[in-house]
Amino acid sequence: MAGSVYGTVFRIMTWGESHGKGVGVTIDGCPAGLALCEEDIQTYLDRRRPGQSRYTTARSESDQVEILSGVFEGRTTGTPIAMIVRNMDQRSRDYSAIMDVYRPGHADYGFDSKYGFRDYRGGGRSSGRETIARVAAGAVACRLLAQYGITVTAYVKSIGVFEVQSARFDLAERDRNPLAMPDPVAAAEASDFLERMMAEHDSAGGVVECLVDGMPAGVGEPVFDKLDACLAKAVMSIGAVKGFEIGDGFAAAEARGSENNDSFYTDGDGKVKKRTNHSGGILGGISDGSQIVLRAAFKPTPSIARDQQTVNRMGENVQIAIRGRHDPVIVPRAAVVVEAMTALTIADLLLMNRSAKI
Amino acid sequence: MAGSVYGTVFRIMTWGESHGKGVGVTIDGCPAGLALCEEDIQTYLDRRRPGQSRYTTARSESDQVEILSGVFEGRTTGTPIAMIVRNMDQRSRDYSAIMDVYRPGHADYGFDSKYGFRDYRGGGRSSGRETIARVAAGAVACRLLAQYGITVTAYVKSIGVFEVQSARFDLAERDRNPLAMPDPVAAAEASDFLERMMAEHDSAGGVVECLVDGMPAGVGEPVFDKLDACLAKAVMSIGAVKGFEIGDGFAAAEARGSENNDSFYTDGDGKVKKRTNHSGGILGGISDGSQIVLRAAFKPTPSIARDQQTVNRMGENVQIAIRGRHDPVIVPRAAVVVEAMTALTIADLLLMNRSAKI
Amino acid sequence: MAGSVYGTVFRIMTWGESHGKGVGVTIDGCPAGLALCEEDIQTYLDRRRPGQSRYTTARSESDQVEILSGVFEGRTTGTPIAMIVRNMDQRSRDYSAIMDVYRPGHADYGFDSKYGFRDYRGGGRSSGRETIARVAAGAVACRLLAQYGITVTAYVKSIGVFEVQSARFDLAERDRNPLAMPDPVAAAEASDFLERMMAEHDSAGGVVECLVDGMPAGVGEPVFDKLDACLAKAVMSIGAVKGFEIGDGFAAAEARGSENNDSFYTDGDGKVKKRTNHSGGILGGISDGSQIVLRAAFKPTPSIARDQQTVNRMGENVQIAIRGRHDPVIVPRAAVVVEAMTALTIADLLLMNRSAKI
Amino acid sequence: MAGSVYGTVFRIMTWGESHGKGVGVTIDGCPAGLALCEEDIQTYLDRRRPGQSRYTTARSESDQVEILSGVFEGRTTGTPIAMIVRNMDQRSRDYSAIMDVYRPGHADYGFDSKYGFRDYRGGGRSSGRETIARVAAGAVACRLLAQYGITVTAYVKSIGVFEVQSARFDLAERDRNPLAMPDPVAAAEASDFLERMMAEHDSAGGVVECLVDGMPAGVGEPVFDKLDACLAKAVMSIGAVKGFEIGDGFAAAEARGSENNDSFYTDGDGKVKKRTNHSGGILGGISDGSQIVLRAAFKPTPSIARDQQTVNRMGENVQIAIRGRHDPVIVPRAAVVVEAMTALTIADLLLMNRSAKI
User: Which residue of A98, A287, C134, D290 is most buried, as measured by CB atoms within 10 A?
Assistant: First the structure.
């Protein structure tokens, strides 16, 4: 219950620290009969792997996954699927500069307040490496969703103020540039901005957008386990996320009812469709059959190589400059994490929905 | 598991429909020894009660709460606290106009897709009356938090584009105007705007902001049950919420790391403080000891008295105009609901935190 | 989480005390579309109602149930089903004799140790009246199981040493005698024994046996949520139960493997059957398609009108004689409670099983 | 939710199959600050390791545990503790004889009914090797309980009809004989009996008894999460357990109230004690401060080398003789598993109890 369990039917437990032996996840509740192999997982992990561009940490990790259980003769058996990724580059270094210091923008002070001490090596459990476990589990969820024709796609919508323009939107472009932006112009602008941030020992944030296609109507529970509420928790649980929107999000607060309501219509084929999608695919917490659209705002990477004022464990005012290997921006690598959390949530609610009717 | 349970240690289950016998909630896990009486709850319920201004539904409900169990000689016993509010004005009327029609912006179509049929009277379980149960339970959570010096305060930040200005912020004003806005000028502007919306048979949305003061550092779990993730789910589970922010929220995505990081400092009294609060009181999912600041974006009320295009159960294109009693804007009554969900979440994580250390 | 929630998919929360306003239960997760009315529940409640024979408490309660939500036009809607039974005969009396005294065989001392104080009126939350809520919810579970051809039947197997003989077993007899024993001879013997106990101001225990027919194979989860493990918790959670067996139970520990193994066979109709049923219908925690057989051992009623030695809250040795209205034996009224807990457990695992395969 | 998660606050998830890569467990919710190393775990694992006597399987496994996360500088950090034991002797052999056949007394038929197929190698997830993960987690729970002066001790009470006599009870003897019986005479009798069973290609069952000392009063939740109900589930979830008793268990059903009630008394030191312990340390589901006593009945090992009648996947009547490496009796190795499940349950409820009072 200490927070490393996610999901109700499709349930995962993750473990691992930045500079420990590795990270991993166990899935309990994946239905039997799903074709699954390590390559299915690896494809997803490779999208968040570090060292693929000059905008990511130089930490050298191959992030190879090993499936330890739950798959037999190429199919899931219905029993727990355990997966592990060993850390390879938890280089031994001198932590004396930061072990007693609360880094601004990090969870260090919270951890000490909560547990009395902490694993100070590279953020320990609060490291971004924790998300490897989410992505591995999310890859399985994506495989499961694919069985039902559901696909989940995330990309970088903006970095700083540089935003993808819908007129130039090209999903294939996402996988061509190191910033995971589906717009080559926006990607170029963002690259320039990032170069400037790096030169100034500073960092940037951005927005990830995620689309779910093929979603049937009727998924999500009224009241507390609304589909959008569950997605909000899923996505906000990714480190550095400070805001979440579904559909029009905050813009809806400024709209009129007559503008914001999506009209239903039918072409006479028995299918209920909507003329617009301000709702982002969810009404009253239940999927309405149209595309789900969500966005997550990531704050800039808190680890910057500038001098910062802070306090240490001994309660003294001190100055700190963080010298480690850090991403100047994390959103490009975070897109697949948003996909993973979205897929885990939808898989869980989809299975839960199997008991909605007698 | 069908979504009417919230919380892990401080756990509630709610029930009830708009036009059924009433709504209610049971709390399992409230610690023993808390002084509690019906008046403590009623004060909160009165803040969301309809009929208090021309901007709310004309439905006449006194929303009197009855505590059925779990309190003995004025204190909670540690056993479940059941509470009920009977519906009084579930007036019998003719639902034939809407019983087979999917109202735009509502969960009707989702409900039918999920369950095969629905209680079509006034939205059934998806009615705003469902939030009575949240507020009743939230009032108990607020009482519990008060024991630890924690207070939760929500108000309307904006209606449409009319926003509270920090220079004019006056919390006492919140309880003086029917829009729950702590700024008389903004309230007046918003009133004018609402009059226009009502005249045009239209509706408005807005933003609720919520502050938590007295929060100790160390609350919230790393990874999935981050304090901000749990708050996001809590608040997004309120009907009509389309966006959520903590601290700087979406603005953080455009900031630089050097701007967004909050410096820690101490006055030599052993207390760790922050010079700024861009984080909104939470870092890495754990409270950092400063004020928690969150915002929720509410869409405009979907029930409007204009003609709208939609589809019915028989799969035919039809036109609908909703004639019932509806709020032209719900944010003024929703502020206390945001408080309730925030308090429930913090109470739960605070109790959970009792097992963080040996 | 304080222990008044049961189930995962078909989930209930109960509330209420012996001398409070009433007892109740809310079910979250009952599938939509089940025909249900108050009479369906009342039939079950009537079987545990007091005052139906000289062997039960004289407390006068009609135990009328009111369904408050979740049923529309005679069918469950998929949303929470709240039910309430008001207490009628919580007669005002003088509790000064027992309010500070720890009754032997009761939870009084545990309650004070746990919560610091307790509702001392008639056992408060630990009263047998708490089981009304279980029976009401269990009645709904039975209705659900009936949809799938599953029936649950419990009866008294023995009172003291007087046991139902299989040669004389007649289920119809169960409802003819006040001891719920399906054997008129055993019932007569047990009656004589109970008369003696009452004359001596003493009490008796007994064993309840429960059968589940129509059970499909494949229900129950390997490892922790084995069907028999879940049934054990369900039944052991009924006050006064001190032992639980499935199939041959403790006798299996003395058998040889060659005796205890049940051979599978088929008549060529594709159905897998067993020649014997030592397993009691469950193998490796999963139903094997044969009849489920379980037994629960109930201790004698701890409230007896004899002088007993004990301690009070002030830590003094004192003498107590309990003068209230108490059943000299509870097993006849407990049979339906065992049915209820069994049905709730099977309904939950049956729904959970819907996500076993893709 | 597929049944490989146990516990609420101190929560574990296990994984692994008999002939897969290994077995493992992750603990989420172990409080920070507990001194822990691999040797602490290994001591417990060694007690269930095979190959230590002629009464266990000849499978050669060293069962070495590796802690993968959650421990830093010798203490638990509050984050998940992942542990793995690699399988070493999952020898490749020909499973064609059993892959399509439902072994009597095993879960094979249930697995196929549930999941559509199964990992037929050595029982897959239903193998006794699954209990390694329980024991590893249980060892951590025991360390935690030791902090509070609580110890958990299990031993074999009987094998077949050969039972430990209280007059000869000597706990030290438990670790001296391969049957884990704390009575040398009973152990010798049981040995002779087992030799006979082995000669006859048959198997035996038995009873494990478990004691918990140092238990404070007030642990366990009223209603569904009673301490004894939770223990029942914990212990019944161990493969092959068919019965469970607390205190006097089934014997209590034949006792009178005046015999079965335990009198409370005090020596004037403020401590509340009991003159007898028929309750087995639990009243009304809450610990009463005396020793907890529970028993589990294990059926005889179902894998026997005799010809047995059964059915195969194709629905044909077939004959089977199981040739693998099997224990003629499992109770000696199961004692530590009962300890583990007991410790996990008590640790969980003990932590849960931290939120009982304000």
Answer: C134
